[in-house]
Design the sequence.
C-alpha cells in the first residue's frame, strides 16, 4: 500500500461529541450505584463519539485527493466501497466517525470501537476493507502533525488512531 501524505487538508473540524459514564451497574456486592451520583470503582461504562471532518485536495505539496481515491480503489468487496465510501455531494470530503465503548468491571476491561467513513459503516469483515483503515490511520497521523492543532485535539486524534490500529491488528491476527 502507498503511504498517504494528506498535506492538502482544509476545513478541518474535530469534535468529541460524548464522553459520559452512563447507566446503572451492579458492583460485586450487588448494591445499585447510579453513575451520576458517585464515581464508580466497578462497572464504569464510557461512551465516546468522535467526528473528524475535513476536505482533501491535490495541491503543490501533494496529491492527497488522488491518493485517497487510489486507496479506496484497493477495496474490492461486492458493494464497491470505492464508490460507497465517497461523499456523493462532495467527493473530496472525508468524515470519520468513531464510536468507542469502554467497560471496566471486576472481570476486566473491555474496549470496542466502530467506525464510519462518510456516513457508511466500515465493517472489517474481509481483507478488502483494510485500505479504508489505512486511510483513517493516515489521516489521523497526518492531522496530529499539523502545527496549529491543539493538544486536546491531538489527543483525540491519537485515540482514534490507536483504535483504528487495534481494530485492524485484531482482524489481521484472527485471520492468520
Sequence:
Amino acid at each position: 500500500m502507498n503511504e498517504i501524505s494528506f498535506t492538502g487538508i482544509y476545513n478541518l473540524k474535530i469534535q468529541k461529541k460524548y464522553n459520559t459514564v452512563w447507566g446503572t451497574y451492579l458492583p460485586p456486592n450487588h448494591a445499585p450505584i447510579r453513575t451520576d451520583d458517585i464515581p464508580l470503582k466497578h462497572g464504569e461504562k464510557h461512551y465516546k463519539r468522535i467526528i473528524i471532518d475535513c476536505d482533501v485536495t491535490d495541491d503543490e505539496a501533494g496529491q492527497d485527493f488522488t491518493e485517497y481515491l487510489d486507496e479506496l480503489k484497493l477495496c474490492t468487496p461486492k458493494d464497491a466501497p470505492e464508490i460507497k465510501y465517497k461523499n456523493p455531494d462532495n467527493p473530496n470530503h472525508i468524515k470519520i466517525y468513531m464510536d468507542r465503548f469502554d467497560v471496566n468491571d471486576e472481570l476486566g476491561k473491555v474496549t470496542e470501537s466502530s467506525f464510519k467513513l462518510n456516513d457508511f459503516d466500515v465493517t472489517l469483515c474481509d481483507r478488502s476493507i483494510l485500505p479504508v483503515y489505512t486511510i483513517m490511520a493516515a489521516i489521523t497521523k497526518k492531522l496530529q502533525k499539523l502545527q496549529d492543532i491543539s493538544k486536546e485535539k491531538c489527543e483525540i486524534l491519537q485515540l482514534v488512531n490507536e483504535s483504528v490500529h487495534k481494530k485492524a491488528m485484531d482482524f489481521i491476527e484472527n485471520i492468520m
